[in-house]
Amino acid sequence: MQLDDTYLQQLFEAISQAHVALRPQVAVTPLIHSAALSAMTGCEVHLKCEHLQHTGSFKFRGASNKIRLLPEAQRQSGVITASSGNHGQALARAGKTLGVPVTVYTTATASRVKLDAIRAQGAEVVSLDTDPLSVELEAARQAELQGKPFVSPYNDAQVIAGQGTIGIELHEQAEQLDAVFVAVGGGGLISGIATALNWLSPSTQIIGCWPAVAPTLQKSLEAGALIEMEEGETLSDGTAGGVEPGSITFPLCQRLVDRTVLVSEQEIKAAMRDVAATERWIIEGAAAVAVASMQKLAPEYRGKRVAVVICGRNITLEKFLGAVA
């Protein structure tokens, strides 16, 4: 799919509408200047606190926007999604708020804490013993068979529009940003943020960040086409997994992401330790991927104003302590 300026303008307009319509259900999260990380890196570092969003991650934005825009008949029938945790929890809460039944398909290896949180919001959970992309494709197949909407974690313009409200907030909260660092899985978060900032602050660089052992979309961008690859185990479980064939996020990232960065598991762990030591925050692996990427590229951005999206906090205490020990 080729993206023209008309499509991008329409998506930006959808983001702008969501930015207004989602309040007060979706919180405007703070943008915090980190004096400690600034001193460590030589950059002027600002942290976008999506770990303080409802359900503990940015996913509540996109889920809320999707549920908001459902026709009444689809609200009554309910929706189906696939998620390793954060998107499912966000959609479950958004559905509960508006009385929409939610079914979440997930892998058998997904975090029990995240699955318990999904169930606590009243959603049904279906676990399948297969990889994340296969779970996603099966969930989409079941949605079609049952005549229900499938809410993709990333391959949905209305979900992307919800995530893009972060980009508008960044523009409102900070004067000219030189770069924004965003962890990437399926690409919904970075596509939304990049679309917003493309219109509001086109000189701001959009930097996509991946764990080196799980970079499917990054390698796809290098190849010029979506590819399948075997990924390794990573602390950044929120970004793990392949990308649905034909995903709209692929051409959006091709058009709008300025550069990509890969970080090691040791760099992710170090970033988690640094944030815990300096800000006293527990953050999940995906959030640390963005921090680690900023630290890795810091020599190129010394003296410049950068923002790092702290995308979530949903990690078990045991896993966190094991990472920062």
Report on the architecture of this protein.
- The chain is α/β, with parallel strands linked by helices and 325 residues long.
- The protein folds into two domains: 5-57 and 157-324, 3-Layer(aba) Sandwich (Rossmann fold); 59-151, Rossmann fold.
- 49% of the residues lie in helices and 15% in strands.
- It is built from 14 helices and ten strands.
- The chain has helices spanning 5-21, 35-41, 59-68, 72-77, 86-98, 112-120, 132-146, 157-173, 188-200, 216-223, 249-256, 265-279, 285-297, 317-324; strands spanning 31-33, 44-49, 79-82, 102-107, 124-128, 150-151, 179-183, 205-211, 259-263, 305-310.
- A six-stranded mixed sheet has the order 1-2-10-7-8-9, with helices on both faces.
- Strand 7 (179-183), helix 9 (188-200) and strand 8 form a beta-alpha-beta unit.
- The radius of gyration is 18 Å and the shape is globular.
- The mean pLDDT is 95.
Secondary structure layout:
Blueprint: H1 5-21, E1 31-33, H2 35-41, E2 44-49, H3 59-68, H4 72-77, E3 79-82, H5 86-98, E4 102-107, H6 112-120, E5 124-128, H7 132-146, E6 150-151, H8 157-173, E7 179-183, H9 188-200, E8 205-211, H10 216-223, H11 249-256, E9 259-263, H12 265-279, H13 285-297, E10 305-310, H14 317-324
Parallel strand pairs: 2-10, 3-4, 3-6, 4-5, 7-8, 7-10, 8-9
Antiparallel strand pairs: 1-2
Helix pairs in contact: 1-8, 1-9, 3-5, 3-8, 5-6, 8-9, 9-11, 12-13
